Amino acid sequence: MAHGSSTPIGQHGVIGDMETLALVGRAASIEWCCWPRFDSPSIFGCLLDEDGGAWSITPVGESWRDRQMYLPDTNVLVTRFHSDEGLVEVEDFMVVGGAGRGLVRRVTGVRGAIEMRSVMAPRPDYGRREPTLTAASNGSVLLDVGGTMLSATGTVDLTIADDARSVTAAFVVSEGETHCFALGTDGVDLLDDELRRATSSFWRSWISQSSYRGAYAEVVRRSALTLKLLTHQASGGVIAAGTTSLPELVGGERNWDYRYVWIRDAAFTLYAFLELGFTAEAEAFTGWLGDRLIDDDRNERASPLAPLYDLDGSTKLDEIELDHWSGHRDSRPVRVGNAASRQLQLDTYGELLDCMYLADKRGAGLSLATWRELAALVDWVCDHWDQPDDGMWEVRSGRQRFTSSALMCWVAVERGIRMANFRGRPADLDRWRRTRDEIHAAIVERGWSEDRAAFTQVFDGDQLDASLLLMPLVKFVSGTDPQWLSTLAAIEDGLVHGVLVDRYDNATSDDGLEGDDGSFSICSFWLVECLARAGRLEDARIHFEKMLTFAGPLGLFSEVVSPSGDQLGNYPQAFTHLSLISAAIHLDRLSTPS
Fold it and tell me: Which one of 335, 502, 505, 569 has the lowest number of neighbouring Cβ atoms within 10 Å?
């Protein structure tokens, strides 16, 4: 079977309603969408296989050029087609703030009379089911997507194709005319123009609450809007990315399902929201988290917190391979579910406690019940910080004593102490302080290599790891400490390519997987912060601004930048956008005289 869409990953626009999202290719083709929520099976998936399903709306003919843009301060996407024959725009959005749910597509003629064609070819259940299309008496077409009935509607006639696998429409749009199409909740008028106004108003109102007024306002706003698309309004959870199995290396096996709530990624995301002044998202996530801290499954796991959950809080995320799909650019396997849910990742506790510390400090304060659960987590870390784990990068080569895991355990205990002191909360502070100091001493003694003159990936090892860029960011060490500056120099020499930063050296660090991967964009933005904290503000600014040039045309990032400079990995990636926001904020702070 042929590979999926030829559109590069980074040249997709993203729309969503905080329940699910869709990726729209440069030619106004919807190439990925799961329904009814992020982690549901896809109904459009040609991003991963030629017959995965798509919905295109394009001018007839081949002489058209296209360009995408967002309406300012919204997640409303515009694809503009232009040629000597005329100019036409396709506006895409998912409804928010309305009575129903759905995806709306508005086609507007700007100049000329343009012949257009819409082809909606759904392939439910990751293409494992044939679509069931039924013409309704009101001119709509009903689509059964595995028990959920959707309605395709339009202001022009819709036709079920002879093979009963697609819904088509042929029409002409003249200057000043608009024709609309929608797919969504049956019985709801998604063609009402008021929904468009309500959706645009929602996004503009939300982003206007941002407190950021720094030098990089436009890119920070776009990153914040992207992170908001990855929040799940119904539960308060925050997913790591909107897709599955987009490869970290074309043709490689590093293809994972990221449509779940990683505690690490969610905590970092909420930290970024709080830095921008968005407190409602932190409150919603705290509510989601509270349910996880008392869930029924915790006694079946190696630790109180699993690394990741689905939106309902389940950790039963069995990893399966969709053998009938060829993968993006022939990158197999295509995976659903994620076996990392069964790993032990000790760093998770530090990221979570750091986020909760900030939420507690800047908000109304955590409830007594939440504090009791967080204090129990700190107690657990005190008992278990010194055991091997699978690490921040979720290696599949066996557990080790990762220095970054110990670092984040130190953060967990240190932030617990701060939170207890801040509001006079009950805690075993004597024990917590002893454990904090034990962890610190272990990192300094066993995580440091005299031969490398650097902190290393694992205790008593000699390999470098970009996760250690977090050391000054979490205040374990000053950004100008001599040992840290020596580590920073070693990372720059061994893992940095221009402004791109590898996680570690795949040639010498066994992570249990075949092949290499690209540079991880979150690490590049961590490097920016480290340079700024080291007093190298001009270097930091240059690195930051160069890194922005690796974004796609819409300012969106996936997880990885390939050796050739392409966006790879799942998309859009929360990790990258949250680290961009943090780097921008700290560049501004450190550039402003106190």
Answer: 505
